[in-house]
Amino acid sequence: MSVIKSTSYSISIGDNSFTALNTFLEKHSYNYYFIICDEHTFEHCLPTLLFHSPLLNEAEIIELESGEDKKTLDTCLQVWGALTDTGADKKSLIINLGGGVISDLGGFVASTYKRGIDCINIPTTLLSMVDASVGGKTGVDFEGIKNHIGTTSEPKGIFINPVFLETLSERHIKNGYAEIIKIALIADIDFWKDLKKLKTVADFSSENIITKAIALKNTIVKKDLHEHNLRKSLNFGHTIGHALESALIQQNKDILHGEAIAAGIIMEATIAYSLKRISAKEQKDITDYISSIYKPVKISKETETLLLKYILHDKKNEGDDLCFALPKGIGNYELYCGVRLDLIKKAIHDY
Ligand code: GLY
């Protein structure tokens, strides 16, 4: 098992992370446990967790409907209500068992209930293991805007067990792998060189790869929890990727976050090349590797119009300047404000 030290808590990764969880639970002697899950993690992950952590058999289970469209204040009301009705006190622990929707919402509920109670994350998807569960961003969507209401509030521990990945489809492993590619490109050239050799989904979700990706993200988050500067680097691929995801969701097209981010990385690498932040070879390497894993996303004229609308509304923009977190060479990044619209359009057309 690997243990990564974060600001004030640890991230335990590996088959033995249940032992680390049990030690944590014994040490803290909470009055009540609340496990927040959805119908998928209720069925596929909760029995495993309860088997390995018998203390949690006394936990209250709060089962939510799955889906980003349920990441709302209404669902929070439901959880705050359940906590209140069952007498949750300040010394209660919320356990977020699920993907990013569960840890975002559960973390937000925990950070606001009675002005804040403890929570831990047990992420069950590759995407939430390497990204959402780490870094203390919590929140819900509001009036169609993703993560509009939330807090920065770190969990008391993160327990990552690869056993939960066994029930994930190939598509959902790739969904998380896009964030691993991103972190390598902005933070560690050697890791990028290692990734380029990986071809199968088993490779993409190996414990070593997960551990390295988390260690890199954790280093960034520890230096800049509140995203004043360095943490912005984690947005590489996301200005276009997020906008593409929103555009396609608005058109009721089937798209996963990581698929949109993979496309976003390719397009933002084109911009980075146009701005001479990376070489032609580096751009080709990025495009070739990502294209060998992800099918291209189809961008119709209508999608492009929506995509540009969302890019212009991105919260990283400053005044009229369009801001992108771009690699500066591989393994480094630069926040580049003032990217011209024609460069963005060219990147979309080249894609
Ligand atoms: N997902 C980006 C961040 O945690 O900052």
CATH class designation of the largest domain = Alpha Beta
Unreliable residue runs: none
Percentage of residues in helical conformation: 40-55%
* CATH architecture classification of the largest domain: 3-Layer(aba) Sandwich
**According to CATH, what is the topology of the largest domain?**
Rossmann fold
The total beta strand count reads 11
Number of domains: 2
What is the overall pLDDT average? 96
Structural class: alpha/beta
Strand coverage percent: 15-25%
Radius of gyration: 20 Å
Task: Kindly describe this structure.
By secondary structure, this protein is an alpha/beta fold. The chain folds into 2 domains: 2-167, Rossmann fold; 172-198 and 226-350, Dehydroquinate synthase-like, alpha domain (Up-down Bundle). The protein has 15 helices and 11 strands. β1 and β2 form a beta hairpin. α4 crosses α5 (100-112) and α12 (257-274) packs antiparallel against α13 (280-293). The radius of gyration is 20 Å and the shape is globular. Glycine (GLY) binds at residues 131, 135, 137, 231, 234.
Features:
single chain, 351 residues, alpha/beta, Rossmann fold, Dehydroquinate synthase-like, alpha domain, four-stranded parallel beta sheet, three-stranded mixed beta sheet, 11 strands, binds glycine
